[in-house]
Amino acid sequence: MHLNQFLKFHPILKEKIWGGKKLNQLFNKNSNKDNIGESWEISDVENDTSIVCNGNLKDRNLKELISEFKGDLVGEKIYQQFGEKFPLLIKFIDAKEALSIQLHPNNELAQQRHNSFGKTEMWYVMQADEKANLIVGFKKDSNQKEYLANLERKSLLTILNVDEVCEGDVYFIPTGRVHAIGAGVLLAEIQQTSDITYRVYDWDRPNPDGTYRELHTEEALDAIDFKAQKSYKTSYNKEKNISSEIVSCPYFTTNVLPLSSKIKVNHSDKDSFVIYMCVKGAVLFMLNGGEEVLIMGETLLAPACIKEFEIIPREPSELLEVFIK
Fold this sequence. Notes:
Distance between the termini: 27 Å
CATH topology of the largest domain: Jelly Rolls
Strand content: 35-45%
Number of domains: 2
Radius of gyration: 20 Å
CATH architecture of the largest domain: Sandwich
Structural class: mainly beta
CATH superfamily of the largest domain: Jelly Rolls
Number of strands: 22
CATH class of the largest domain: Mainly Beta
């Protein structure tokens, strides 16, 4: 069978103690639950493999497709490196309450302790309530002693950097960087395929049954990067109808693509799948007479073997374009 279609997947919805209703209300992620915190759009995390919801490959899962189509789906180099593991996890996140203060281990630590990839990630803010913020990194260089003293006193916020955010803000979160999504933020998250999180402070918030979520104080100590940055926000340029790079690292590259008119896309320079997340508006993907609609809050995967197609916005729209260099 020839792989000649864009792939869309059923979202995998995750209830979270901090989740809300925006994913349902704004993105039509059908759920009768009031606390959906995450929509996993494309996932190959164990027991959470995405299932196709469109076209001839409907009801097939991502793992089977990589096994069948190999480099045609993910790109030859990527297939050689990752085999049948899809290397990225793509999500939308709605924080009604703040997430725990946390960080992720790097590849070496994650491999050694959890037999997993590390977790480098990035955020693209899609909507933020007034005064909503993100916690990212330290205000100034810190160390284990100062950090532990503040952790014990529950005063971590006095040494952490807190930024008020608005739509379009981008943050890159390398492994080791302490971070938390604040209440009232809705964002797109792109990350390595890994579900390993070291939770260091959870606001003393109990679960509905009165228990508390596990903290990882000890594990986190060797994983934290105590160095501070001048600014944690990524600055980037946006140009209409042109794909502009906003983040690039060994694990993924993300471009922003604001659309006001039809464009022809050519990916013959890439040996990679390309993921599109619609963060505003609605667009039409056209391929040899076939078409696929993508609306805000939806995600689509263009297989590596599909090099040329057109994207037609139905209204002023914005896409994130994600691939591996």
